[in-house]
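Please check what follows.
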Amino acid sequence: MTTVIANEAVQAALGSVKDKAEIRDAEGNLLGFFTPTEVELKRLYATVSERFDPEEIRLIIEREGHLPGRTTKEVLERLQQLA
């Protein structure tokens, strides 16, 4: 991803944006899009919460004593076996 450094004027303009916004030049040509960090984080959290059921996680931990998975050591050992 490319990073663009916003000067004070751009920061002031974008600071008031509360949702996704189109960025256009003086002639109206689309330059790109801007999404404030808080809007993107809300979207990401919503996506994650749709995919994970806290009750299911609690039941797995209760039944198994832990969530399914592997330790870093186990992963590294498996990768060495595959090499």
